[in-house]
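Cross-check.
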Amino acid sequence: MSSKPYDPAEEGAEMSFREQMSYSDYLHLEDVLGAQKPISGAHDELLFIIQHQTSELWMKLAIHEITSAMAAIRNDDPQPAFKMLTRVARIFEQLNNAWDVLRTMTPSEYTEFRGLLGKSSGFQSYQYRAIEFLAGNRNLAMLGPHGHRPEILVMLEDILARPSLYDEALLLLSRRGFDIGADATRTDWRATRNENPKVLEAWRAVYSIPGKHWELYELAEKLVDFEDYFRRWRFNHVTTVERVIGFKRGTGGTSGTQYLKKMLEVELFPELWRVRTVL
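Predicted model, tokenized:
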């Protein structure tokens, strides 16, 4: 066993970055690592900030993947969307795992700085709102927390003016010859759509003969995977909040766990869950 210290330069590794881009330069690490600015002396506030900042970064990637998947489906080329939607499901798996870290913070530790958060709350995350709107949960009341940011409202309104991810899947069903009733002629994308028995029947036909409609079958399962992990994220959110603050009101004024439990009832792709019963 050699006692000589390992020197990566001997294998050709670049060691000088005075005049070229480094890892830190490419990732703008000074900006990223300098973005954590605790406002208390509490030990656990850094955990709280990093948990939420990293979640927002993952959500940024989820939005990128969802919008790209929607474009592929719209262009009648759903296969690239399968990989993108798989990635979205894995992003939410990652977000789920992050709750395990936050749950190491006890109620006593959170109360050390909770009072300094004012009315700020994850409820106000505009990226989370964008994901909900993109997926099809178009509750217009949820525009309210963003009214003070005109540029954010423009972004969200642009999403609402277009078909959702599920709408794009249904329109693809229609283009492939399935009768989806009123969903084929919808133009008011802002409105919350109602469950449609014709859509349920179309998905039943797809699931009854998967080999004949393989792309649609695969798309349906990728959508279910996405919602499966999304639901788990919501559930873990509820249990984490209940574990840390019990049934206190949220910092943003919501009913806290009661509000989050209501969100568990929201279904993004209802007919894809109902079809399991009618097969």
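The chain has a mean pLDDT of 91. Residues 42-121+164-246+254-278 form a domain with the Methane Monooxygenase Hydroxylase; Chain G, domain 1 fold (CATH 1.20.58.480). Passed to J.P. for a second look.
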